[in-house]
Design goal:
3 helices, eleven-stranded parallel beta sheet, mainly beta, globular, 8% helix, Pectate Lyase C-like, 41% strand, 405 residues
């Protein structure tokens, strides 16, 4: 296309003479190629349009954020600021200085590959140790380990004892997060707070060292409040992962469309919804095909006695296998932090279902099922629940079908 004839065809091409405006920013400052007869009204308008576009050029350039198709490597915190300019980020082995957060704010669509062990230095501070944000991020742990050195903090008291950084892993990204080993979190391990769909899979939370006592724990297990996954977000799937710890395997605090599937939970407090505080909604939760071994509780819903304005609804349990439970196989309790005390009435619970086959085997001194409702409604179908091993327990809610307590 020639300058003398082509620009008339498209005012948006006046500056670049046939090239789209956004593809050649170097032409924004030159209109030397324009050859117009200003006696022609159309050409007069074209010239005005061209000058208007020129005046907008700085703003147009400022609005374009370049994406660098490069690979950035992180082997110290000093590398992060440059690495996050790239769409591929590799994390090599290194030690994060004590008292510092390893924070990655990745560009949209980035891929992050872990290439070695990351160890976090020890200091009494609030944390978190690691933070990830970004949209549609692919995080590949490749079987490597993030080591929080929790054994250096543990005192058997968790949040009631010395200051410990928590959570260890603060995940605010959407996309996928896979195949990472997280060892010895000082307190809570994962905090999930994504703002779009996130799938976590093949992750190992290994706080098993906390089962033993140490010089600070007074004969008790040293690890405490070491939750595996704390979820406060919607559109979350956690699957095919393993948690060994001393607190909830997962605690769902708020959110909707949450799936916890095919996971293994050992040694902690079981699979929990809650504790539920004021002004939150939990809905559309599926707890599917999980294995829970040697936990205090198997499946639990707990709501704060003093909470108000909250709801828990649409919770389905299916295909779960619970064994070795020492306190309660299934417990729904609206008196938290008490256990089976006077129930609060500020959280509405409805549509709690056991479908398929859920087998719950408890120790001889444990209760199989306890239901302590303050504000429960609707008929709950529990035909998919089978319990054995302990005393039956009790329920103050009479609209449970397909199962007798």
């Amino acid at each position: 296309m020639s300058c003398s004839t082509g620009c008339r065809q498209n005012i948006a091409n006046v500056i670049n003479c046939g090239e789209p405006l956004a593809t050649k920013t170097s032409s924004y400052r030159s209109i030397s190629c324009i050859q117009l007869d200003l006696q022609d009204p159309f050409n007069m308008l074209s010239a005005v349009a061209a000058l208007s576009l020129l005046s907008m050029a700085p703003a147009l350039r400022a609005s374009v954020t370049p994406v660098q198709r490069c690979t950035g490597t992180i082997s110290s915190l000093d590398d992060v600021s440059n690495a996050v300019k790239c769409t591929t980020i590799n994390i090599e082995s290194f030690t994060v200085p004590a008292g510092k957060t390893f924070s990655i704010s990745a560009p949209d669509g980035a891929t992050i590959n872990v290439k070695g062990t990351v160890t976090f230095g020890v200091k009494a501070w609030s944390g978190p140790l690691f933070e990830l944000s970004g949209k549609d991020i692919t995080f590949n742990g490749n079987g490597y380990t993030f080591n929080g050195q929790g054994e250096q903090y543990w005192d058997g008291l968790g949040s009631s004892g010395s200051t410990k950084p928590h959570p260890m892993m603060k995940i605010k990204s959407s996309g996928t997060f896979t195949n990472l080993v997280v060892k010895n979190s000082p307190q809570q391990c994962f905090s999930i707070g994504n703002d779009a769909s996130l799938t976590v899979s093949k992750v190992t939370v290994d706080n098993s060292d906390g089962n033993s006592s140490n010089s600070k724990s007074g004969g008790k297990p040293a690890g405490h409040n070491t939750d595996g996954f704390d979820v406060s977000a919607s559109d979350v799937t956690i699957e095919n992962s393993t948690v060994s710890n001393q607190d909830d395997c997962i605690a769902i605090n708020k959110g909707s469309n949450i799936i916890f599937k095919g996971n293994s939970c050992t040694g902690g407090h079981g699979i929990s919804i809650g504790s539920i505080s004021s002004g939150v909604t939990v809905s559309g939760v599926q707890i599917l095909d999980n294995t829970v071994k040697n936990n205090q509780n198997g499946l639990r819903i707990k709501t704060d006695k003093s909470a108000s304005g909250s709801t828990v609804s649409g919770v389905t349990y299916s295909g779960n296998k619970i064994s070795g439970t020492t306190k309660y196989g299934v417990i729904i309790d609206q008196s938290y932090p008490s256990t089976l005390g006077t129930a609060g009435t500020g959280v509405k619970i409805s549509d709690i279902t056991f479908s398929g086959t859920n087998t719950v085997e408890v120790a001889s001194g444990a209760k199989e099922v306890e239901v302590n409702c303050g504000d429960c409604s609707g008929t709950w179908n529990w035909s998919g629940l089978k319990v054995s091993g302990g005393s039956a327990g009790s329920s103050n809610y009479k609209k449970i079908s397909g199962f007798s307590i």
